[in-house]
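Write out the 3D structure for:
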Amino acid sequence: MQIEEKPAFATPFEWIGGEDKVRALVERFYDLMDLEPGYAALRAAHGDTLDNARQRLFWFLCGWLGGPSYYTDQFGHPRLRARHMPFSIGIRERDEWLACMDQAMGETGVPGDLRTRLKDSFFQTADWMRNRGA
């Protein structure tokens, strides 16, 4: 009889370290967007303040990673593509978002295996969000 090993973490939310780590990731992501010139196009798409975006991404990521469903509890299904349709999202914005998130994951200590998994998932989602070719 073979005994199955229980995974170390039931969800990516647990693996990343829970709400505090998700909050730290989101805060660093938006701080970098404000600080790094390489993310200028991404920052420009967010308007004058990042406060609303910070909160909504935190809520969304908690649920998306398998933690509390704050976002869907307040707003229903995320409908990511529809909610982002008013914003011009091309390859540059996609790539800046991905680079900024990857940098934030690195700087907040997201474990390497999880970071790789998330980068793949983030790419698929970010590429699907594009609403213009270039």
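The mean pLDDT is 92.
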